[in-house]
């Protein structure tokens, strides 16, 4: 007799309540193996591929791509005994009939338990003495091999295959992925395919639907549902802005010595192949300055009515990605050398831009740096990330007239801004920290005095 199991949407990171289905990697009738990737979902923190913890035959996809699903809700049904050959355990051994706790957990660490549908006992066989907790049953047809139930067809008649950054690009340009034919291996849709469609030079599978893209020709407006990273970012920023009393201070510094030192490092054998940027120096400066002013690396615990001082720096780096703003962390950044920081920052930003940052990589930060200078912006008033007490903003480094020894010269000048939680950090501590960071960036040699 076939045995059906529901595969639930797992909680892929602490605190998640829902996720958007991006793309199915299987269809009804497919045979899957243990830990095979079956679906790609987008949470408020990252795009995640979910493996299935059982082998069997997929019988039904319960949700369509694009739908938002709550954690724990079933999204797929699988027949784990498609041949119907397994016999039920005898009455004397009821424990064998019950699904073991470990069997109901995904094998790669995703947390939600599966909802299991047990087989009905054959006629003439005694029912087990101890029954498992009442499962959510899927009523199978009374035949040896039930016909798979076809899921509702997505728009365009197929599930477009595209990575999260490409999906984000398509949304921004108003391109319907369901109407495109991917040119990469396996029919995967690429950025070039999306740009070609946006420019009207693609050979789509069908006409691009203005309804599907959210564009209304009558109003000349495009509406995009608030989901995923954008939704989470908005909620976090509102919470922070209306919970922590923000104070922002500014400092303009001459970083010509830092830029000259950077050029020397590029030519050194030790830093060969290592990408050293102004952000690298800022990261090191923040870690050093935080040791002298630990208040900026502390956090206000409202529930416990305590200020928690952290003896480590998990440095958040705000990164603009095709999926929106994400803030992955460099763990124990204060224990790293300048070279180690440079390597860690390069890896972190590369992964973020590819849309592959894991949810775990964005948890537990203590202080954050945001770099608006890469967009040519001079400065800003950043909002503190929830769970932290300070955020440093780097502006653009520009050639600027500057007084040096009584003479006006053209120098490399940078504007810094620091927002901090005034419940934790007083004006004196915030000013001292910003001054320390500025001094370290203005002259990296100052670091040897710390």
- Which class of the largest domain in CATH terms? Alpha Beta
Rg over CA atoms, rounded to whole Å, is: 27 Å
**In the CATH hierarchy, what is the architecture of the largest domain at level 2?**
2-Layer Sandwich
Number of helices: 8
Order of helices and strands: EEEEEEEEHEHHEEHEHHEEEEEHEEEEH
* SSE class: alpha+beta
| Shape, per Cα inertia axes | elongated
Number of strands: 21
Instruction: Please report which band the strand proportion falls in: under 5%, 5-15%, 15-25%, 25-35%, 35-45% or over 45%.
Output: 15-25%
Q: How many domain units?
A: 3
CATH superfamily of the largest domain: Chloramphenicol acetyltransferase-like domain
Largest sheet: 8 strands, mixed
Protein name: Dihydrolipoamide acetyltransferase component of pyruvate dehydrogenase complex
GO molecular function: acetyltransferase activity; lipoic acid binding
Enzyme class: transferase
Domain Lipoyl-binding: 1-79
Describe the protein's architecture and organization.
This protein is of the alpha+beta class. It folds into three domains: about 5-115, OB fold (Dihydrolipoamide Acetyltransferase, E2P), CATH 2.40.50; about 155-220, no CATH class; about 230-450, 2-Layer Sandwich (Chloramphenicol Acetyltransferase). It contains eight helices and 21 strands. It has helices spanning about 95, 165-175, 190-200, 230-245, 255-265, 280-290, 340-355, 425-440; strands at about 5-10, 20-25, 30, 35-40, 45-50, 55-60, 70, 75-80, 115, 215, 220, 245-255, 300, 305-310, 315-320, 325, 330, 365-370, 390-395, 400-405, 405-420. Strands 12, 15, 16, 17, 18, 19, 20 and 21 form an eight-stranded mixed beta sheet that branches. Strand 4 (about 35-40) and strand 5 form a beta hairpin. Mean pLDDT is about 80; it is low at about 85-160 and about 205-210. Its cofactor is (R)-lipoate. One of its GO terms (molecular function) is lipoic acid binding. This is Dihydrolipoamide acetyltransferase component of pyruvate dehydrogenase complex. It is an enzyme of class 2 (transferase).
């Amino acid at each position: 007799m076939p045995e059906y199991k529901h595969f639930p949407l797992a909680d892929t990171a602490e605190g998640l309540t829902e996720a958007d289905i991006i793309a199915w990697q299987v269809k009804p009738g497919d045979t899957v193996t243990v830990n095979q990737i079956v679906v790609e979902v987008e949470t408020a923190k990252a795009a995640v591929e979910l493996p299935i913890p059982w082998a069997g035959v997929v019988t039904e996809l319960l949700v369509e791509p694009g739908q938002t699903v709550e954690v724990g809700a079933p999204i797929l049904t699988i027949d784990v005994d498609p041949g119907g050959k397994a016999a039920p355990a005898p009455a004397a051994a009821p424990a064998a009939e019950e699904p073991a706790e470990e069997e109901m957990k995904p094998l790669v660490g995703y947390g939600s338990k599966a909802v299991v549908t047990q087989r009905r006992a054959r006629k003439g066989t005694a029912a087990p003495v101890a029954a498992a907790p009442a499962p959510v049953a899927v009523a199978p047809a009374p035949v040896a091999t039930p016909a798979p139930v076809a899921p509702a067809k997505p728009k365009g008649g197929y599930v477009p295959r595209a990575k999260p950054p490409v999906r984000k690009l398509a949304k921004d340009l108003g391109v319907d992925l369901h109407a495109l034919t991917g040119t990469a291996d396996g029919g995967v849709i690429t950025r070039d395919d999306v740009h070609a469609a946006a420019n009207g030079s693609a050979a789509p599978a069908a006409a691009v639907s203005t309804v599907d893209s959210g564009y209304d020709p009558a109003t000349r407006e495009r509406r995009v549902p608030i989901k995923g990273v954008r939704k989470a970012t908005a909620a976090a920023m509102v919470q922070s802005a209306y919970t922590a009393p923000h104070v922002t201070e500014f400092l303009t510094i001459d970083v010509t010595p830092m830029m000259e030192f950077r050029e020397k490092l590029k030519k050194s054998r030790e830093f060969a192949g290592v990408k050293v940027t102004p952000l690298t120096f800022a990261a090191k400066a923040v870690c050093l300055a935080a040791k002298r002013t630990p208040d900026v690396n502390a956090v206000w615990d409202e529930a416990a009515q305590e200020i928690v001082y952290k003896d480590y720096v998990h440095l958040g780096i705000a990164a603009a990605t095709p999926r929106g703003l994400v803030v992955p962390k460099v763990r124990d950044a204060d224990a790293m050398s300048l070279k180690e920081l440079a390597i860690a920052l390069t890896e972190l930003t590369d992964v973020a831009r590819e849309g592959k940052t894991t949810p775990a990589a964005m948890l537990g930060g203590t202080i954050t740096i945001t770099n608006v200078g890469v967009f040519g912006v001079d400065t800003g008033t950043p909002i503190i990330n929830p769970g932290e007490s300070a955020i440093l903003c780097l502006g653009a480094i520009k050639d600027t007239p500057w007084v040096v020894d009584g003479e006006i010269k053209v120098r490399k000048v940078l504007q810094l801004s620091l927002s901090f939680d005034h419940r934790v950090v007083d004006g004196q501590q915030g000013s001292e920290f910003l001054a320390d960071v500025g001094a370290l960036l203005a002259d990296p040699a100052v670091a040897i005095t710390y």
